[in-house]
Amino acid sequence: MFGTDDKLRPAEKIIGVYTLLLCSQRPWSLQNLRKHFNCSTSSMLRIIDQLEGSSYGKVIKTKEGRESYYEIDKSFIKAPFMKFSAENLGNLAICRDLCRLWLPRQTWKKLEAALNQATALAEGQIEQYSQPIAQARFKGWIDYSNFHEQFEAMVEAIRHEKICRVAYKKPDGERKTYDFAPLELFIYHDSFYFIGWLVDSDFMPYHPNPMTILLHRIEKVETLNNSSKNFPKLPKETWDTFGLMQDETFQVEILFDAETGARVAERKWSADQAITWRDDGKMLLKMTVSSYYEILSWVLSYGSQAEILSPDWLRKDVADEFEKLIKIYNSTE
């Protein structure tokens, strides 16, 4: 289990210990409780004494050798109508572990608390299923730990079909305020995005295409009373083409060397993509693109391993970018 925040107030630790003992199917040793809540043995004993003297529930203490174990008497809890299997609990635990780096800290703690509560409804031996065995790793990842309020407000707006007033900071530092009706939360290139409609002064969508905004650029969210219930849903073809931005679409043909082509062919880039392996071992990719800057950046990232065959104007733009790079690296300054 991941350690609990050592900045918790005493009352929060008491509630935390009670919830942990109530939802666990096994007794917890004094030392494991101390480590889990990042406190001393004497502090944990005081917390347990306070629990025993409160109306939260009866604390059951047992001994194994020199170690003391604690649990909450659950005899007053009625058997639930439905229980989780250990395997299902293990799948939820994997989701918990993979989301740890992404989700805001408080949101992740709610997820962990929900999983701990689910253990009380699990059937069979669950110890080997509830332990952390996975984690997400990224280079250059975004720290979302302090974006809990923005995240929760936007998610609730999606669930209840509400319009939000969003204070947004652009990459150049300019601050804008949007009236925005979020439709969906998604992850793209390891970042959280919300997609929805920009709304005018009459609280109606005014742009033909949905807009995407990044969670980490949202400074504040105010949920308005205005509803987005009758707004258009996302077009079905929103994610059918290459690129996050939905501009005018066009067809591209890209030739990759054998090794790079093998890696590229493992992924789906566009709903209509076609892959052809040539006699010389190279791979030809044909697909529909909706974002000029994204396809330009993507092809450039492969250097000499990728070649634009068509359209001609995109091939020329890629060549121009390489010429600029040559000038930069040939510069003596």
Q: Which terms summarize this structure?
A:
Arc Repressor Mutant, subunit A, disordered N terminus, 333 residues, alpha+beta, four-stranded antiparallel sheet, SH3 type barrels, five-stranded antiparallel sheet
TL;DR?
The protein is of the alpha+beta class and 333 residues long. The chain has helices at 10-23, 30-36, 41-52, 86-99, 105-119, 127-130, 148-160, 258-264, 292-301, 312-330; strands spanning 28-29, 59-64, 67-72, 84-85, 122-123, 162-169, 175-188, 191-198, 211-214, 218-227, 250-256, 274-277, 283-289, 306-310. The protein folds into four domains: 10-72, Arc Repressor Mutant, subunit A; 84-130; 148-227, Roll (SH3 type barrels); 250-330, Alpha-Beta Plaits (2-Layer Sandwich).
Query: Main sheet?
Result: 5 strands, antiparallel
Structural class: alpha+beta
Quote the average pLDDT: 87
Helical proportion, percent range: 25-40%
Tally the helices: 10
CATH fold group of the largest domain? Alpha-Beta Plaits
Q: Characterize the overall form.
A: elongated
- What's the architecture of the largest domain in CATH terms? 2-Layer Sandwich
Whole-number total of structural domains = 4
Secondary-structure element series: HEHHEEEHHEHHEEEEEEHEEHEH
Number of strand elements: 14
CATH secondary-structure class of the largest domain: Alpha Beta
- For the termini, the CA-CA separation is 54 Å
Sheet with most strands: strand arrangement: 9-8-7-6-10
Q: Calculate Rg over CA atoms.
A: 27 Å
Strand fraction equals: 25-35%
> Which runs of at least 5 residues are low in confidence (pLDDT < 50)?
1-5
